């Protein structure tokens, strides 16, 4: 709404109008519009009156909804209850529920200080030493695709940025193709493909009746998709369900993708962090490579090295020839240049120092085993508590069958709301909890909350 105000001395624009009558006549004093300034003069006193219109050019911008995952942490921080638990964000915590910086990370950073590393720009594709060890970590250093130069690796802004870079590449060079995404999936997958303007549809994955994998539905939907689709697969520790295919099921998935001429697109955010074994968690990717399939793999070091805020990851593309690999790399760089120019160096050097040094690499594997082991212990304790406290006879064994830092509890939105409103347990509304944010001492309390919400909220 316009506001009327006396404004002595006159505004600069009003003074200009009085000094230039011709300009004043062109503007048209007295004609009200959202952009005009109106001036009325008296013979005595030269009192100026102006109408200011406070309409923003951004009036059409609507308020975005809070992020379904990161918003959980904001609500948790505002809660003053002593029993509150934050099981929303997937970030590792110690048994005391404190953030953890790996010892090998501290050692790697000390090495960087000793070397006096500079802060010069990296090339568009990132730190060469980082890209080398990252590809070897995922595929195995002796894998033929590496020895033959058929893997292109470009450092990205953690897993999210690597996925986004790949999605832009798909949109540019495969404009008629669409992506297939599991139902459910990590909340940001759909955002990434939407913003890159890559059309997508879902394939069945989670079976609420068994709180397990809907394998038949998954296979049927992949078969029904148009030939040449990009099938987004979680390499290990599926987020949000924690439900992974068995090795035999992975082989059947590879069969169908190969038959349909689809392109596998792996998101690997938990290598080594899920099972405690880097090789075991890379099984699915290496199986598809062994089949001779061209594929994409996004990697992240947020979880397994605890480098959440360093935003360090990579996109790998396995091609059928070194020539194709070189051309793909050139175009990924071309896309990255106007997007973020080049990636940050600090996290890349940490990874290169840890993965590239035999001593630090061995220490890292032990720390990962300890982190994965703590989550496994919490998972077991939660299952034991649920089984002992719930007298209804409900089978909670699905919790033990799941893997990684997340557990899909099977709770619906109303039940998840009760977990938060009554029990101060903060989680995503799809029933996912992060076991990495749970301690052994809190398992009984969480079991009470789950049992109450499951049985008493419809």
Assembly classification = single chain
Largest beta sheet: strand ordering: 4-12-11-10-9-5-6
Question: Uncertain runs with pLDDT below 50, 5 residues or more?
Answer: 1-19, 21-43
Q: Total helix count?
A: 18
Shape: globular
What does this structure look like?
The structure is a single chain. By secondary structure, the chain is α/β, with parallel strands linked by helices. The chain is built from 18 helices and 15 strands. Strands 4-12-11-10-9-5-6 form a 7-stranded mixed beta sheet, sandwiched between helices. Helix 4 (103-115) packs across helix 14 (346-356). The longest helix is centred in the last third of the chain and has 32 residues, at 358-389. Residues 1-19 and 21-43 have low confidence and may be disordered.
Short summary of the structure?
With 458 residues, the protein is an alpha/beta fold. 44% of the residues lie in helices and 14% in strands.
Write the layout of secondary structure elements.
Blueprint (H helix, E strand, L loop, with lengths): L2 E4 L5 H8 L1 H7 L21 E4 L17 H9 L6 E2 L16 H13 L12 H12 L4 H4 L3 E7 H16 L5 E5 L3 H9 L4 E5 L1 E2 L4 E2 L1 H10 L5 E5 L12 H13 L3 E6 L9 H4 L1 H8 L4 E6 L11 E7 L3 H19 L5 H11 L1 H32 L8 H4 L4 E3 L4 H9 L3 E2 L5 E3 L8 H14 L2
Parallel strand pairs: 3-14, 5-6, 5-9, 9-10, 10-11
Antiparallel strand pairs: 1-2, 4-12, 7-8, 11-12, 13-15
Helix pairs in contact: 4-14, 4-15, 5-14, 7-8, 7-13, 9-10, 10-12, 14-15, 15-18, 17-18
């Amino acid at each position: 709404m316009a506001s009327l105000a006396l404004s002595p001395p006159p505004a600069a624009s009003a003074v200009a109008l009085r000094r230039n009558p011709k300009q004043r006549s062109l503007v048209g004093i007295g004609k009200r519009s959202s952009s005009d300034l109106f001036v009325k003069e008296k013979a005595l006193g030269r009192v100026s009156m102006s109408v200011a219109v406070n309409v923003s050019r951004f009036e059409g911008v609507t308020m975005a909804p809070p992020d379904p995952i990161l918003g959980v942490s904001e609500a948790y921080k505002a809660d003053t209850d002593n029993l509150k638990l934050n099981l929303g964000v997937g970030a590792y915590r110690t048994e005391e529920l404190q953030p953890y910086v790996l010892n090998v990370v501290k050692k790697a950073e000390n090495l960087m200080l000793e070397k006096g590393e500079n802060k010069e720009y990296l090339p568009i594709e990132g730190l060469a030493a980082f890209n080398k060890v990252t590809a070897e970590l995922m595929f195995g250093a002796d894998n033929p695709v590496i020895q033959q130069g058929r893997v292109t690796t470009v450092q990205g802004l953690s897993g999210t940025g690597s996925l986004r870079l790949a999605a832009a590449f798909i949109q540019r060079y495969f404009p008629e193709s669409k992506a297939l995404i599991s139902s459910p999936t990590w909340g940001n997958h759909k955002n990434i493909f939407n913003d890159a303007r890559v059309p997508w549809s879902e394939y069945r994955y989670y079976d609420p009746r068994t709180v397990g994998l809907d394998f038949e539905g998954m296979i049927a939907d992949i078969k029904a998709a148009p030939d040449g689709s990009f099938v987004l697969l979680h390499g290990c520790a599926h987020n949000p369900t924690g439900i992974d295919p068995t090795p035999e099921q992975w082989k059947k998935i590879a069969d169908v993708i190969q038959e349909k001429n689809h392109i596998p697109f792996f998101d690997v955010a938990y290598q080594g962090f899920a099972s405690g074994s880097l090789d075991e968690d890379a099984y699915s990717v290496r199986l598809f490579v062994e089949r001779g399939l061209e594929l994409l793999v996004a990697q992240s070091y947020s979880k397994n090295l605890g480098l959440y805020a360093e935003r360090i990851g990579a996109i790998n593309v396995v091609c059928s020839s070194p020539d194709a690999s070189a051309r793909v790399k050139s175009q990924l760089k071309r896309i990255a240049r106007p997007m973020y120019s080049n990636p940050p160096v600090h996290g890349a050097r940490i990874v290169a120092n840890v993965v590239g040094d035999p001593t630090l690499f061995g220490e890292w594997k032990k720390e990962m085993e300890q982190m994965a082991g703590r989550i496994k212990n919490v998972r077991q304790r939660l299952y034991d508590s649920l089984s002992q406290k719930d007298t209804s006879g409900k089978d909670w064994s699905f919790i033990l069958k799941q893997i990684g830092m997340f557990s899909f509890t099977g709770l619906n939105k109303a039940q998840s709301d009760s977990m938060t409103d009554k029990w101060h347990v903060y989680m995503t509304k799809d029933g996912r909890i992060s076991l990495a944010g749970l301690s052994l001492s809190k398992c009984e309390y969480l079991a009470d909350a789950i049992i109450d919400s499951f049985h008493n909220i419809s």
